[in-house]
Design goal:
8% of the residues lie in helices and 42% in strands.
Length: 380
Amino acid sequence: MSIFGKRIVTAMAMAAVLAVSALPITASAQVQERPPEIPEGELIKQPEIPGSWQGDGAQKPQGSDFTWVYDVTNIFDVPEGATVLHKKEQVKGPWKVFLVGEPSDYFCFYNTCNININDGVGDNVYLVADWYRQTLVNRQTGEATILDSSGLQSEVYDGTMTAGAIFAGDLDNNDVDRFMFASGDTIKDFLIVNMYQIGDRQYGLGVFSADNAKSLGNLYMTRQVATSVGTTATTTTETTATTSGSSDTGEGNKAISISFRDLNWFSGYWTYEDSYSSDSFYLEPINDHQVYAVIGDEAAATHYGIVLDVVSDPSRSTISLYYPDGNRFDSINGTNINGTDAITMSDYNGVLFRTDKSVRAQEYWDHINDLFKGANEWYD
């Protein structure tokens, strides 16, 4: 019997009542991690950026857009070979934005959003922030809670662009009406101090603050743009970069792939088969905090389905699943093996690969759906 088969037998002795909880938002933080350096081939000075196409900045930001921020040691530094952006015509339009809060003893806080830089009269600009997600990470356990902010009203920040820097503030003096960062502080203003382009990607760095110039953390912006009129560069969902030096010899000179995977990446049908076992795992998100999970011992034709609580940590490409009583079900890590999406599970001695759901008849998936309609936990 496979490990999955043993788990199904064990699970048949358990009964659970679904309970969903969310962690409170109380503090702010940042995480120090180091991604690979920018490849030398990208450090090429580009011509003036055309204003006819403003890039992919209106797309929802993903973790893979911001692997570069962990290499930033000084937000005022301009990388060698980069083109400095100092005109409104070069920076106007939508951007993907990552806000990294200052750390507390216990928590790390992040926010992703889109900010549209709009041209005003003279030096004036105004920024429109469309909120996306906030993430709270427990520094002791590494577990993360993701909160959806996309339903909140956009916020407008009025300001100016002078000497290549943008300062924009919320004119509403009512603290209640401002956007509340995950730390519990409301954002009063943004100061973008450094904007530049490398290859076909633009970057912006700065800070954001509360009242009385209280620093809340750093701001990082990026978007992919056209390198010439009529040509648009394509975006990627994973970032692969190589450290300086040879890419195939010597420790520290290897090609490194870094990718960020959220809960939606883990959804789908995963399978593993060898001469001894045939296992499957199916995951379908219900919302940001719950999933349908089905584990199968295909050789024995037995399946176990359950609704689980989920905590996602895209920065580590992992999710943790919990029974309704709070006990851990499993932790899952997302990876890529020979070009194929794969997952490893802490309680499963093997690798499961992404498999097209069409390998099973639609009647099978209808049957799974009907079982979950009847109960939050079932055996088949």
